[in-house]
Design brief:
Strand content: 5-15%
Number of helices: 8
Distance between the termini: 71 Å
Order of helices and strands: HHEEEEHHHHHH
Number of strands: 4
Largest sheet: 2 strands, antiparallel
Helix content: 55-70%
């Protein structure tokens, strides 16, 4: 499992460097292995896995620090938070394969999404793959098999909103964006996150056009 953790860490920085095709290849291969490990863990009656105890700290972070995490402005649409996720834990702690799978799925979705916006000829199938992977990642969180912080749930829903808006239009993206903003308000005023990155403040201003009602066009005289 340590090798998988090291692999995910090194792959995350391929996204930062913009090596999206290599990232997609490596993460797809990694996910295939992790899924087999999850299944094996579930079917073994006398599992030899050593699960992380309550005293073991397994945390999900941005590849860069939260304060330096910026978002990618994609041509006037809902912005994307472009920092991949990594897992951090103490030496010797066994990270559950479900946690590694979640990080791999999220980063694979991000790679497909960023690849779409950096292509000369944009292929919408990359956005569809990104949206589906974000939804799978969200399902894992909802099943409580993986716990993430509010800020990472916020970025997941925001990136999904951006993908859905680009594929299906403003109204579809608005549904997810409303939820993302609810999480944002919870973080800001619910004292869940003490130090929110400055980029979130700029993000809020950038999505105002999506929150305002469409102007009514007066009928022609």
């Amino acid at each position: 499992m340590t090798s998988q953790l090291d692999n995910l860490l090194s792959i995350a920085y391929h996204i930062v460097r913009g090596d999206y095709d290599l990232t997609i290849f490596l993460l797809t291969k990694c996910l295939t292995t992790l899924r087999a490990e999850v299944v094996m863990k579930m079917v073994e009656e006398n599992s030899s896995w050593v699960a992380a105890s309550s005293e073991d700290i397994v945390e999900i972070h941005f590849a860069a620090t939260a304060k330096s995490s910026e978002y990618f402005r994609n041509q006037g649409r809902i912005p994307i938070f472009d920092q991949p996720l990594v897992v951090r834990c103490a030496l010797g702690v066994v990270v559950p394969p479900e946690t590694l799978s979640f990080v791999a799925m999220y980063n694979l979705a991000l790679a497909y999404q960023l690849k779409y916006y950096h292509e000369e000829i944009q292929n919408v199938s990359n956005l569809r793959k990104a949206a589906n992977l974000y939804k799978c990642s969200h399902d894992v969180v909802c099943s409580q098999r993986v716990k993430i912080s509010a800020i990472h749930l916020f970025t997941l829903i925001t990136n999904l909103a951006s993908a859905e808006e680009a594929i299906l239009g403003k109204e579809k993206g608005r549904l997810y964006l409303d939820r993302a903003l609810s999480i944002y308000m919870f973080m800001k005023y619910g004292c869940v996150e003490k130090d929110l990155p400055e980029s979130l403040c700029f993000f809020l201003w950038s999505v105002f056009p999506f929150l305002l009602p469409a102007p009514e066009v007066a009928p022609a005289a």
